[in-house]
Write the structure tokens for this entry.
Amino acid sequence: MDHPAGSPRHLSRRSLMATGVLAAGAVGVAAPTLGNPFAGTPAQAAGVTRRITIYAEQLPGGLFGYGLAPGQATVPGPVLEMYEGDTLEITLVNTTTQRLSIHPHGVDYRTDSDGSPLNASFNNPGETRTYVWRSREMFLASGRRFMPGSAGYWHYHDHAMGTDHGTAGVAKGLYGALIVRRRGDILPDKQFTVVFHDMMINNKMAPNTPMFEANLGQRVEWIAIGHGNLFHTFHLHAHRWADNRTGMLEGTADPSHVIDNKDLNPGSSFGFQVLAGEGVGPGAWMYHCHVQSHSDGGMSGLFLVRNADGSMPPGAEEAIHRFQGHTHEQHG
Ligand SMILES: [Cu+2]
């Protein structure tokens, strides 16, 4: 079957690369010690600095994308990951004829890494520029206050193309997921980035939206991001998650709400992990915007949970054909 760009095959490759970055960053970091992990000052000094190069490129169809190597830009861009306390130094190569930048959510940066025209922080056409993103662990501040760490499911995007406010790049596909993990977090087998953007998912409409695939029982990490000018709700069929930082309950008394639907509005993001098909079995499951006119308008896609051995479960092929609009059902 045909896999559109942004399909799981693409994502797997990108995830591997991202995981490689993550693993490289973990080298040389001391294991967490016992005692009060939050006492003292921000634990930035404990982290490592990683340097990556990202290429902003023009893509067919008037789209733009970020990629980790020349010719590999995608929509959405690669999943970028760091551990709390780490610093990410991003050298952004602008191969396009447009002014653009990379602007993160959730991490710390100075004005010169803001990625906005306001701070003259952008790449002119053909220019290369470095942006520095810092993260921190939770720490005990004065006045018995805990300052939050950076861990979370965040995102990054262009903030310089087109207008004074730099809104044109997001519309053309310059966006991606940024994950800041806490040391000890469980790593997934697969990652899916889902961007609800105006009436599109990853700048595509059904039936050309990504079909994400996993085998029964695989640990799947979803990163959901909202962009554009409309308000959305993200719904995943037959799977639930805890509405907290990781999507997992951390004990029997964890008060987090368990949900299967969550607001996904412009600029917001969240993520969670599920075991594919746990308790419900394999099959073709939908994910979609739950604003009814939006799902009718093309904001839906498939999460194909294969059998544990990778084979197709009964009925899945038919469901995929039905989704793609060429059903061969007999009537009468
Ligand atoms: Cu919607």
